[in-house]
Amino acid sequence: MAQVVGQQILRDPALFYWILFPITIVMILTGVLRHYATLLLQSAPKPLEYKAIREQKNYLHGINVRGNANQIPLSSFTTRKNYLVAAFQAGNFLKDPDAQGKPPANPMTDPNGMDQMMNMMKGNMMMIVPQTVIMGWINAFFSGFVIMKLPFPLTIRFKSMLQSGVMTKDMDVRWVSSLSWYFLCLFGLRSVFTFILGNDNAADQTMAQVQQMNPQQNTQQLFGPGQDPAKMYLAEAENLEVMVQHEFVLDGIEDRILATV
Amino acid sequence: MNAEERDLQIHPIVPENVIANSKTIVDLHSLSSSLLGIAAGILGLESYTGFLFYLLGTLFVSFLIITFPMGGKPDVYVRGGLKDVVLADVTGGVMGYVLTWTLFFGLVRV
Amino acid sequence: MSLPSKLLITFSSLLLAHACYSAHEHSLLSTTHPSPSSPASPSTSPSGTTTTGSSLPLDITLETLISVSLLLLGIVSSGWELKPISLRSYAGMLERGSVFPDGVDGKTTVRGRGIFDGLEDRPGFLDIRKQREEFAQWIKTHGDS
């Protein structure tokens, strides 16, 4: 395809007023709406029953002891380690000790798992529904125009995507239709949302996707559905047991202090 | 325990402050990349020139960040020192930059 | 936000808006009067294809660059607070009262409290019987489910 070096197209400024600005404003407002809708739809995490809380907190206790072992003297650490390892291996903190060895419950039937699935579903819906609706809206109303010229060249592969609805074969790929402005808005509006809604907003899809990758991060559910707490306890006991290297932070503190004086 | 871990144990860091600082830096970078995009659009930069402009602008902003809020000592406020100030949230910054760049490139030129 | 940076931001935003407007007008002028003798495009290129960046007059270019630099300067220098990440300097600042942790109002809090503040004001007396009773009640209602 022979491309003219400086293809020039004279555009009506009305294209900007009636396509570019509406799309931008709709995208921003949708982001704001999605943010608040997500806030509204978030169900408060259900209070767990006390045995489940005990199970989680003791597991965390083990992890914390392991992580901060160097902050306490060796004797204190050994005492804690012995206690925790014995308790973990005996399964003292398990929610239902009888369930060891049984296959994990089906997450679809587990009510806690259901809750989590519902939350994920809601998050997904909040992402997908507006995206589909806006894309359909843009395709229905604004397809077939060239509205702007990208400031950077693209390969020819993008032509079918970015010039959809424009039946001109020889046009430079840099001239794009309204759909590509939609894509630019989709990816580039995050900084705008940061300043409208603050840092932890739910308006942006990329952030939402990251959060879905690790849903355990901010939920109460430490043990995800399908994980066997008994096995995790045993693994943690082994970790504690194996951790032989212990070096108290205050070892040699006198020399260090005197060195700074 | 290797030397790095030991150093971390002896001189602990405050994770909340690390997160807050990197958030502030990312905020500054995304705001400034939008502004740089406006400038690039007005100047009518194209392709490589535009990305080069972004690179220079980001370096300039990093220099300003190190000079003003940090007082010339990036190691006090960021784990990785200079590198983390310059490279904070590059992808998000480029996206915001391209958005405003395209917008003003189209708006200014009839 | 301090007054000088506020002024700087306002001024440079105006300057940037003006640069944008001028660039727009310039491109309008050069497309509606595409005479090769126009001062902005001295090159003898065919009319109508000269709206590239190089045709922008020098004063608009300079205005844009200067205004953006000033704007960035104003934004970055407008009181963004960073906290030191090493615990010992941060804790020292807390104890000296020159900085406060998040969610703590600097005016109502007593100065000079460190990170181990919680250890300092534990209550002297706990009615342990009452608490145990409450706990037993709670177990009765919430346990065995």
Question: What would the keywords be for this entry?
Answer:
heterotrimer; A: 261 residues; mainly alpha; two-stranded antiparallel ribbon; 10 helices; C: 145 residues; 2 domains; 5 helices; 0% strand; Emc6 (chain B); EMC6-like (chain B)
Low-confidence stretches of chain A: 208-220
Amount of beta strand of chain B = under 5%
Which structural class should the secondary elements of chain B be placed in? mainly alpha
What's the N-to-C terminus distance of chain B?
64 Å
Keywords (chain A): Membrane, Transmembrane, Transmembrane helix
InterPro entries (chain A): EMC3, EMC3/TMCO1
Main location (chain A): membrane
Family (chain A): Belongs to the EMC3 family.
Structure report:
Chain C: Keywords: Membrane, Signal, Transmembrane, Transmembrane helix. Chain C: Residues 28-54 are annotated as: Disordered. The complex is a heterotrimer of chains A (261), B (110) and C (145). Chain A is mainly alpha-helical. Helix content of chain A is 57%, strand content 2%. Chain A contains 10 helices and 2 strands. Chain A has helices spanning 14-41, 50-67, 74-90, 111-142, 159-162, 178-188, 190-197, 205-213, 229-242, 253-260; strands spanning 148-149, 175-176. Chain A has a two-stranded antiparallel ribbon. The termini of chain A are far apart. The model of chain A is unreliable at 208-220 (pLDDT under 50). Chain B is an all-alpha fold. Chain B is built from 6 helices and no strands. Chain B has helices at residues 3-10, 15-43, 47-67, 74-77, 82-86, 90-108. The longest helix of chain B has 29 residues, at 15-43. The termini of chain B are far apart. In chain B, 52% of the residues are buried. Chain C has 145 residues and is an all-alpha fold. Chain C has 2 domains: 3-76; 82-117, no CATH class. Chain C has 5 helices and no strands. Chain C is elongated. Residues 37-53 of chain C have low confidence and may be disordered. Chains in contact: A-B, A-C, B-C. Chain B binds chain C through residues 11-14, 16-18, 20-21, 24, 28, 31-32, 35-36, 38-39, 42-46, 49, 57, 60-61, 64-65, 68-70, 76-79, 104, 107-110, and chain C through 16, 19-20, 23-24, 27-28, 31, 51-53, 56, 60-61, 64-65, 67-69, 71-73, 75-77, 80-90, 102.
